[in-house]
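Dear Dr. V.,

Thank you for agreeing to look over these. As mentioned in my earlier message, I'm a first-year student in the group and I'm still getting used to reading structure tokens, so any feedback on how I've presented them would be very welcome. I ran two proteins. I've put each sequence directly above its structure. The first is here:
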Amino acid sequence: MEDAEIVKLIQYIQSKGYSMRDYLKDFAEHDAPHAEIKQKQFGRASDGKIYLIDPGCAYLQTEEKTGFFKRILEKIRNR
């Protein structure tokens, strides 16, 4: 798999309103010049299409503030 193919998939996922996490090595920011894609997070199907091995890497942007972080934000707001 080429990084360019993976980048196209990532851009497609983001165009659908999703954010991506845990797909870069060394916890780099996506626009950092040294950022490397974790190849093991992606696979290729028998028909040649690239897919996410861990679909939890893509999440709706509205889901960002759920769970632990949501509780922390609520506590901060309710001070």
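The second protein is here, in the same arrangement:
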Amino acid sequence: MIKVMNFECFSEQGIRENNEDYLLPHVLEQQQRVFVLCDGMGGHGHGEVASQTVCESIYAFLSSQIDSESYEFTEDAMQQALDFAIEELIKVDMFVEEGRRMGTTLVVVLLNQFDVLVGHVGDSRCYMFDKDWNKIFCTQDHSEVAEAVRRGFITEQEAFNHPKKNIITRSVQAGKQTEIEANVLRNVSNGYSLLLCTDGVSDALHDTEMEALLFRPTTSERLSGVKEECALKSRDNFSAILIQMLQDEISPEPTKKVILPAEERKQEEIKDHKLGTYCKHCGTEMMVGAKFCPCCGKNILQPKAIKETLLEEDKYWDLGLIKVKKPASIQWKVPKIRWPFGIIVILVLLNGFLFYKMNHLSDKQGRDFTLTNYKYEEKNRQIQVLNNAMKNLKQENELLRKNVKVLTDSIIKLNGNEKLQ
């Protein structure tokens, strides 16, 4: 059975005027198995009311489901808890600027006998660390920037510094049906830990910084280090729950995977749905070009539907009040090209051209090349002649030097004989 060995939490206002984060429980209870954290959406007004209402509703609903120690939480129970929270949120909903409804993000953790069930909506996160505080799991934010990272358009470092990273595509709002994303974490060992946090924490600390701060002797020291760093760096409210787990039973289900991600839910086939209208799933009005619903987070258009829509729109000239169909001869068509074969042919032709240029020079180039070689050989011959002349001159100079020496000796000898006489 997975149990809580150590527990700490904090919720700080930071530099904001009020704290719109809310979490439960504040104090660990016996056999605690439900943990919830919410971050109210300040731009929608009364975010603190939304976060507290949703957090308390989900916590109460799931806690009431535990009828025995062997009770197992399911994804359906988690979704039912969210649906219940949305109904409770409607009761306290307050319309503010431009009629926008109150909203909040959500992350919830449920402890079962052999696994941990994690659900989230928005950009509040849940991390799981091993006993050496290495990150082995993190929820995926529901935001356009996170989607760009998943698709490989930008790096995680670029996403961390992106100015629009807090614009989320899914949230809990009054009167809007929302689907919670669930993940099942298996093979939980002694000393494994969970960290639930709002974006005030994850935006202030890189994952590596978080690992370093948590690598401390006690739970209180770990979370106090995180809180101190957030107080210096965070631009928002910052809240977190740290849970260190104990597993005193061996899982009967052998598996090589530590994390089993949530199954991709089948989406309904979309027919006769145009960009810039309404979400087919929840009815939210969409902006032109949007691919994900900001309320329920579902895909608005499947790739096939997007392609067909764009192809259809390209067949017309938009003249304002009317659209005129283009002649068939100039309508945009997708060329069917066998790219791999075409690339191979181009490379072969290029290599052949280079080989020909290297081995078959034109007549003029050949004559120029021959003339250049002749001039080069003539220069070498002249240099050789000069070298031979210099060598002969040196020999003649040496011979002349010897003759001068002999002549000098003869003159000296002759002068000596004359003095004797």
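From my reading of the second output: Residues 372 and 390 are 27 Å apart (CA to CA). The mean pLDDT is 80. Does that match how you would interpret it?

Kind regards,
E.
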